[in-house]
Design brief:
With about 220 residues, the protein is mainly alpha-helical. About 70% of the residues lie in helices and about 5% in strands. The chain has helices at about 1-10, 15-30, 35-55, 80-105, 110-120, 125-150, 160-190, 205-210, 215-224, and strands spanning about 60, 70, 75-80. It has a 3-stranded antiparallel β-sheet with strand order 1-3-2.
């Protein structure tokens, strides 16, 4: 979480690069995440970010400017300042997303909800986060079942049939989403829902107690 705030506050390429290095070291050495998998996730996000910052680096105008090229009826120019601004935006966004990936891959959802409550974030936002997280996996399973059923019926034999099948699947998935949300609402009301989802706060050892675990004489006291 601290790395995300650092990336947002510091407007520097060096700071963003340092955050990226710390994130990758933390992901591979501390969290023991597969480097190849984590790198794929970051590079996929980098591709979307790169497509977004092209508009900052490249200027398109109907008026001629210095060092501009006339292409297809418009003047296109790229300056060192625009490239620098695009680089800052790219690396800041990439460092933030990489730190957010590290947080999502290493922190349970219940801990994020507890953190949101401690930061005084409205309960409505944390409840929406929990419900979205739950529905992602359940709806993805439903989508895979629909895709397998449609493929078994040759629903993707050509381009026209594929578009038709995809539209029908999305329509059925939308209806399934509404039905599941209604069932979830009834289940919450049946369990005495009072407007917010409550989670149990896990008890973690402090840093001092964690070091005491290495001492066999103090281990029993710490566990108690």
């Amino acid at each position: 979480m601290a790395l995300i705030f650092i990336s947002l506050i510091l407007n520097s390429l060096r700071a963003s690069g340092a955050v990226l290095i710390i994130v990758f070291l933390s992901a591979t050495l501390w969290a023991a995440l597969p480097l190849k998998t984590f790198l794929k996730i970051v590079l996929l996000e980098a591709a979307f970010l790169l497509a977004g910052v092209i508009g900052i680096a490249v200027s398109i105008s109907t008026i001629q400017t210095q060092n501009s090229l006339f292409i297809a009826g418009v003047w296109i120019s790229v300056t060192s300042h625009s490239v620098y601004l695009a680089s800052i935006v790219l690396f800041r966004a990439l460092s933030c997303t990489a730190a957010l990936n590290l947080l999502a891959l290493t922190t349970p959802l219940t801990d994020l909800v507890i953190l949101a409550k401690r930061l005084k974030i409205p309960a409505l936002l944390s409840d929406i986060m929990v419900l979205i997280y739950r529905f992602i996996f359940s709806l993805w399973d439903c989508f895979e079942v629909m895709m397998i059923a449609r493929q078994a019926r040759l629903g993707f034999k050509d381009l026209k049939t594929s578009f038709k099948s995809l539209g029908e699947i999305l329509a059925m998935l939308f209806i399934e989403t509404l039905q599941r949300s209604q069932k979830l609402d009834l289940a919450l009301q049946g369990r005495g829902w009072e407007g917010s989802l409550n989670v149990l706060s896990p008890q973690y050892l402090s840093l001092r107690d964690s070091f005491k675990l290495f001492n066999p004489m103090n281990r029993d006291k710490v566990i108690q």
